[in-house]
Amino acid sequence: MRYILVNTEEDFIKMESVLGRARVISLDTETNCLDVFWSEFQVVGISLAADTQTGYYIPLGHRAPPKIEDATPPKQLSTQWVMSRLGRFLKGRRVCGANHKFDAHVFDRYRTNMGTTTFDAILAAWVYDSRDCNMGLKEITFTRLGYKPTEISSLCESVKPKGKKGSGKKGKKSKRDSIGFEFLDPELALPYAAADAVNVMRLHRWYAPRLQMDPGLSWVMDLEIALSPVVRRMEQCGMLLDKAKLRSFHDSLLEKEGLFIDLLQKVSDNKDINPRSSLQMGDLLYHQMKLPTPGGQRLFKRGIAPPKGWLDAGAIEEVLSKAKEANQDYFGDPRVKQWPKQQVIDLLSLKIKTSKIAKLRTTYTLNLVDLVSEDGRIHPEFKQLVETGRMSSGGGWNAMNLPRGDSKDTKGYDIRSAFIADEGYVFVKADYSAQELRVLAAMSNDPIMREIFTGTKKDEEGDEIDLHIYVASMAFETPYLDIKHAVQKKKRGEELTVRDKELIQFRQDAKPVSFGISYGITKTGLAEQLDKSEEFADFLITAWKTKAFPIAATWLDNVPTYAKTQMYATSYYGRKRRLSYAALNLPKWQFESRVANQLKNMPIQSTSADMTKMAMIKIDATLREELGDESARMCSMVHDEIVVLCKEEYAEQVSKIMVKEMATEINGIPIPAEASISKTLSKE
Asked: So what's the pLDDT on residue 211?
């Protein structure tokens, strides 16, 4: 391969003349860190290529390493000159890259045009094979082309200044940490940077024809490419934070965490144990108490910390469930020490509460305050790369999973309420009504479920059937109208009898079953959610599957079998989630416990994700055309809720736009949307 350094205006003009004849141009940026909203962020260089043999690198922000005194500055072009010139050159041209959303952020920062992205190697790798969703460009290049490029960490290690950090604390990585690329000599940076642009061209030739051969995957690829600039604009918008409220939450949570720790030490009969120590807690639970391991995995050696995740709330909940079901009265080594079963259950319950409180405090209070950029806003980072096709969030916090403050674990700490609209603005939030249940009805063709969602199934009074009342009536063998009338009395504010309250509770107990069934909800998980026994939870799940919607239940149960035969599960629109090779070789009982539930939900979750993404693209286009960015723009997603920040006077108009653009149908099942207006992201 041939790599050319472009560090004079004459070199740049020559490069332009060569690239100007190309149909597609590959572009990649090198920067000093990954936080494009930080004041110290800088572009270090730009790579370009138009074929699979020649790459160009334009150094812009290289400087001598701090270790070298009186070093001569490297020869390079002015950033402003290059950005201005590239903006004119790339306007209207087709470009490709790898994680091009980031590159577009870089060009936006310099108010420069980057052309029209038609291919992204990272997105293509994920769409083609969902197992590659966590791969970077180097891994993808090695996997598909058999060529292993140099990793940036090994390249920069010798020149990167020690301790050059942004906002990372206690050794944690931060997007503001220095990459160190700016301290490389441009001649050394050339083969690394230019190779990235060339490899993107090579990957474009590898993926493009393969994606085109599958109409479903081709459609998904077009969707993700169209969504990328929408997501970028969401990230750029950002939101304001009520910092005082978050600091108050932090202090209160810290105090509550301390009380839980005191209780945990008492219950464990060890006042010196540190619940924050994975080494100590791992030893106590898995070696001293000899509790079952998460997922039946092999026990780790004593004297080292347990594997990652073994002490998370989810894993401990699994251990707690197994401890409750265990046919034994004591845990531990009878030759050393034993703990009564109830004491172990109490200890595990406290550990779960302590972990949840600690995570809430460390992730969603002062951490958010520290991430506020110089513009006074916090900018979420959204990722399109999830195996199921759903969006996810990164950057040190999860914008899509903000705690609501209405669960028993987070009560009193409504983190969403700390996200506030600008003066004179409001948030318009919209999501689908029973989206995943409607998708399940459409894909399973369950006749009863279809009739409910199309409105063709009526009760004896001629009204449309309420799905949750229907499930409750089937489960508890109670007349539908009895439950309906009790619910209506409550809505009207009338005095309720004991029987009315019981009937209303039937519906409330049935509701989480329907919403959780496609996720493979277990009797343990439902019992925890309802705060009732596992026997009762199992009764509800069985009733849903055998009495309420047996056709839908059968369809869900058949998805893993079909997926194992085809080696993938698919969405309504053609997105594929491929099974890992390890999953295919699992024994049946392990496949059922580890993989089956994921596969059951994949067609529903992926179809819902594709639907939401299509809506985001349409909403963004309509808002920009009718109102403009100053009046309304998408700013976030919370769970499956799309959030728009708009001027108060346009709130009703934006609400109507969102509901209209989101409304859709699949296989004859209508899927409507609902919108609300508020000054914060809170549900209250």
From this structure: 96
